[in-house]
């Protein structure tokens, strides 16, 4: 008889939802606070803008400098061997003669 009352007690407890193990608290991936996240975001935003500004200044400086212009190489005769006349004339189609 004692066994039957224990079973019925367990059955009633299960129906009421009592003595269930509580779910573990949800954890985020990062355990930092929102204030820390906002601080980190602001820090990296400032670093990004500083990087953009410094790269822009460096590019303007490099592009404003002159670069050396080399002399034209001498015309080597073996570069333009013409064994046969082209249908459009003696020069190549896209060659421009400098007179």
Description:
One of its GO terms (biological process) is mitochondrial electron transport, cytochrome c to oxygen. This is Cytochrome c oxidase subunit 6a, mitochondrial-like. Keywords: Membrane, Mitochondrion, Mitochondrion inner membrane, Transit peptide. With 99 residues, the chain is mostly helical. It has helices at 2-16, 34-64. It is elongated. The model has no long low-confidence stretch (mean pLDDT 76).
- Share of residues in strands: under 5%
> Ends: how far apart?
123 Å
Question: Which class do the helix and strand fractions yield?
Answer: mainly alpha
Give the overall shape, derived from the CA principal axes.
Answer: elongated
Largest sheet: none
> Considering DSSP H and I runs of 4 or more, what fraction of the residues is helical?
40-55%
Roughly how many Å is the radius of gyration? 42 Å
One letter per element, helices H and strands E, the order comes to HH
Low-confidence parts: none
Overall pLDDT? 76
Beta strand count: 0
Total helical segments:
2
In summary, what is this structure?
The protein is mainly alpha-helical. 46% of the residues lie in helices and 0% in strands.
List keywords for this structure.
mainly alpha, 99 residues
Write the layout of secondary structure elements.
Layout: H1 2-16, H2 34-64
């Amino acid at each position: 008889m004692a066994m039957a009352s224990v079973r019925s007690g367990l059955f009633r407890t299960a129906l009421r939802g009592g003595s269930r193990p509580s779910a573990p608290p949800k954890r985020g991936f990062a355990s930092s606070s929102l204030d820390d996240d906002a601080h980190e975001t602001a820090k990296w935003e400032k670093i990004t803008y500083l990087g953009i500004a410094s790269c822009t200044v460096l590019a303007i400086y490099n592009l404003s400098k002159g670069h050396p212009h080399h002399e034209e190489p001498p015309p080597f005769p073996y570069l333009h061997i013409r064994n046969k006349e082209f249908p459009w004339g003696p020069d190549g189609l896209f060659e421009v003669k400098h007179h």
